[in-house]
Design a protein that fits this description.
The longest helix is centred in the middle third of the chain and has 29 residues. The protein is of the alpha+beta class. It contains seven helices and four strands, in the order E-H-E-H-E-E-H-H-H-H-H.
Length: 202
């Protein structure tokens, strides 16, 4: 198999997942800022022009970061990052969805509506980006209350793919110069734990 990946929040999710698993896959870097993901050759692999893309030995193409992670989890169950039984898997899925919608969602919308890179891909509404910046703080407040029990990671205090989605959200926040406010001490504790993991992208 071969992984086509590069600098993006979803690319980061797969890269961190592989690092946490200790999996090595032949890969090709796609220069997203330079527009390589939108060239004809790559569009044949993913018509949406997005990374990551996992191409299997038989030519099957997998896109979408969580789908790729799910496939790799089945092939390499150790160390588990997506649950070990029905209930734990459901909880990881629940928290992955929460992190994607509640935490990654607003700052992602800020990017779509304010980053020049997306100007030719979306109809940008700067005023909407401003509303999402305000919403992001409300979402941090929500997560801060959830983490008030002192746990290190979001799902059952076990590092999981849900935390990896959190890493991707923090990456966007860093790029957008929207750091987690210091007042959210529990979120800052969680952020510190993520940044201290060897898989944190330098």
């Amino acid at each position: 198999m071969k992984l086509y990946n590069g600098q993006s929040p979803n690319g980061l999710r797969v890269s961190v997942f592989l690092a946490e698993k200790g999996i090595e896959i032949p890969s090709e870097n796609i220069d997203v800022p330079a527009g390589e993901a939108r060239k004809a050759a790559f569009l044949q692999k993913n018509s949406l022009g997005e990374i990551p893309v996992l191409e299997l030995d038989d030519g099957t193409i997998l896109t979408e970061s969580l789908a790729i992670c799910r496939y790799l989890e089945a092939l390499h169950p150790e160390v588990p990052l997506m649950g070990t039984d029905a209930l734990e898997t459901a909880k990881v899925d629940m928290w992955s969805r929460r992190m994607e919608q509640q935490i990654m969602g607003p700052v992602g919308e800020v990017g779509r509506h304010s980053f020049p890179f997306f100007a030719d891909k979306f109809e940008q509404i700067p005023a909407y980006a401003d509303t999402q910046k305000r919403l992001q703080n409300k979402r941090w407040a929500w997560l801060d209350a959830e983490l008030a029990d002192g746990r290190t990671y979001v799902c059952e205090d076990n590092f999981s793919v849900a935390d990896i989605t959190g890493m991707a959200a923090l990456m966007i926040c860093q790029f957008a110069e929207m750091p987690v406010p210091e007042e959210f001490e529990n979120v800052k504790r969680w952020e510190t734990a993520l940044r201290e993991r060897p898989s944190w992208p330098v």
